[in-house]
TrEMBL record:
InterPro entries (alphabetical): AAA+_ATPase (IPR003593), FlhF (IPR020006), FlhF__GTPase_dom (IPR047040), P-loop_NTPase (IPR027417), SRP54_GTPase_dom (IPR000897)
Record key words, sorted: Bacterial flagellum biogenesis, Bacterial flagellum protein export, Cell membrane, Cell projection, Cilium, Flagellum, GTP-binding, Membrane, Nucleotide-binding, Protein transport, Transport
Organism: Solimonas terrae
Protein name, UniProt field: Flagellar biosynthesis protein FlhF
Domain of life of the native organism: Bacteria
């Protein structure tokens, strides 16, 4: 197996060079734009003798081994394909698979190394990558942000530009959206803070507009004491609380509350894998187009779990989210990555159990600032080897 890197003015020239040097069976494994042209990595000759031997045998057909896809040239013609493998015998096939597996791993290491060298040549990019990883921003997003950075900038700009780029990506809802009124249901898994957030939102609205146009509804009839929690808040705030156990009841209750400017619906805390979830989301869907759902996400959840929650609650068509428990984690980058990735506008952020104080409208800048402040409390010095690994892995995966 021979792997070689070619530098050329353009893709056409690079392909010509590959053909001339490695022959028609060469496989283009990657191509990149570099200063002054393109860089192509091509491979050939992955044990030609073995392939020839294998094709001569007449063994029962087996699926061909996974081969790296040839990259298409600029004029979109395939450059070359590996020699066809007809009916290789099992031992040779296994050997071939091992050979190709080894080639893939070697390539991945090579590519990771190349990407890493590119970053290391620009200390400002390296610093930005460290900052992003330290905030808990997922590697793929961190890489996209770093790629947006110019190669050189003055020191001050270089420090804040990555944070600005991160902040620009955070989607936020209109400032203080409950003040616009509407029928809003808070959905999300058990214990993320839906009921507490409803109380905070109700108190916030009541502070500005009084309680006359406000009503609370609970559909949470699954958990003992769940309704009682909302009734307690309702009593404290002087706001009526209605209950709705199914889709029909919800429609009836909402019709009765049609004259209220703001109706906040507290839903059951159902685990994202619980079958009851679909029934509940279905009930909300049939409650009418006026009902908007907000997904409640807890900042102290793992990024992969947040991703899972967002996918499972997609049926509720959330138009925004509330990020709770910002006070319970030192890394809110996971939550920020999730809302960026799923383009879910942040309506509010909550940072404590106190009703009504611990809530504020979602603002991209303050979320980034908070992420910075929290990360600074326990700065994790991410060493070069870890960064190289993380960054390289992401690069190869794409
Ligand atoms: N630290 C912290 N705790 C919160 C926050 N929001 C809610 N909680 C707490 O989380 C727990 C579950 O809240 P609850 O509103 O019952 O969650 P629900 O099951 O989604 O309705 C309660 O102990 C709340 O006081 C927050 O922003 N920060
Ligand atoms: Mg609740």
């Amino acid at each position: 197996m021979k792997i070689k890197r070619f530098l050329a003015k353009n893709m056409r020239d690079a392909i010509r060079m590959v053909r001339e040097e490695q022959g028609p069976d060469a496989v283009i494994l990657s191509n990149h734009r570099v200063a002054g042209g393109v860089e192509v990595v091509a491979a050939t000759d992955y044990d030609a003798a073995l392939i020839q031997q294998a094709t001569r045998r007449s063994a029962p057909p087996e699926p061909p081994p996974e081969t790296p896809k040839p990259t298409r040239s600029e004029d979109s013609r395939p450059v070359a394909t590996p020699a066809p493998i007809a009916t290789p015998a099992a031992p040779e096939l296994q050997q071939l698979r091992r050979e190709l597996g080894g080639m893939k791993r070697m390539l991945e290491t090579q590519m990771a190394g190349m990407a890493w060298r590119e970053i290391r040549e620009h200390p400002q990019k390296l610093h930005a990558l460290q900052t992003m990883v330290n905030l808990g921003i997922e590697p793929r997003l961190a890489r996209e942000i770093v790629a947006e950075l110019p190669g050189t900038a003055d020191a001050e700009r270089a420090r804040f530009l990555p944070l600005g780029l991160l902040s620009r990506r955070i989607p936020v809802a209109s400032a203080d959206p409950i003040q616009d009124g509407g029928v809003i249901a808070l959905v999300g898994p058990t214990g993320v803070g839906k009921t507490t957030t409803i109380a905070k939102l109700a108190a916030r609205y009541a502070e500005m507009h009084g309680t006359r146009d406000l009503a609370l509804v609970t559909t949470d009839h699954f958990r003992v004491g769940a309704q009682e929690q909302l009734f307690t808040y309702g009593r404290l705030l002087g706001v009526p609380v209605q209950t709705a156990g199914n889709a029909d009841e919800l429609r009836t209750v909402l019709a009765r509350l049609a004259d209220r400017k703001l109706v906040l619906i507290d839903t059951a805390g159902i685990g994202p894998r619980d079958a009851k979830l679909q029934a509940q989301l279905g009930a909300m869907g049939s409650a009418g187009a006026a009902l908007k759902s907000w997904l409640v996400l807890s900042a102290n959840s793992h990024a992969a779990d947040l991703d899972d929650v967002i996918r499972r609650y997609a049926k509720a068509r959330p138009v925004a989210c509330v990020i709770t428990k910002l006070d319970e984690t030192l890394r809110i980058g996971g939550a920020l990555s999730a809302v960026i990735r799923h383009r879910l506008p942040v309506a509010y952020g909550c940072d404590g159990q106190q009703v009504p104080e611990d809530i504020e409208p979602g603002r991209a800048n303050s979320l980034v600032l908070r992420a910075m402040q929290l990360a600074r409390m326990t700065p994790a010095r991410i060493d070069d080897a870890t960064l190289a690994l993380q960054f390289g892995a992401v690069h190869v995966a794409q």
